Amino acid sequence: MKTGIEEIDKIIEKDRVVGFRFQDRKLMKIMYHRALVESAPVNLILLGERCRILEPYLLLSFSRILGKSLDGIKVKRAFKREDVFPTIESISGNLIIVNPYVYGNVYDSLMRRREGKTFLFYLNEPVGLRAETSILDIEKIEKRNLFSITVRKSPSYPNLRMTFPTRILYFRQEQGILKWVNL
Description:
Blueprint: H1 6-12, E1 17-22, H2 25-39, E2 42-47, H3 56-66, E3 73-78, H4 81-89, E4 95-98, H5 107-112, E5 118-123, E6 134-141, E7 146-152, E8 160-165
Parallel strand pairs: 1-5, 1-6, 2-3, 2-4, 4-5
Antiparallel strand pairs: 6-7, 7-8
């Protein structure tokens, strides 16, 4: 699964469960729509009943920008707490969950999954028992049209902070100088 940001994708490529924690709702929406298109074929679970989370026009825009098809995206919705665990357990393959902690912790269901990777996109949830092998704290830097990503792997591993211009989310990222440098 990919985010579309080469530097981040290299860091999290071996992680089974990755959490994306946001301060800004708009930035979260853009990032998970881009990740959906970049990672297709993928399954998406939307949790909660009162938010309009999936924007078809944004998906189509990213599909055109990235030159990828939307055919492999499957969407499921869990409106009630009782629906969350059976929905997660019924899916095989790669999975993206938006607002995973709206009904409490999904740790057990994620740990039972044997195949595929999982991306979790959520707003400002408190840190507790988590299934994530990496947590990416993403915050918008208001006055400069930038966003920063802090990668947290473990308490013994130092955090890594990177800053990117917001405009890279709206373009296909070319390798450029990265193909000449071995990272």
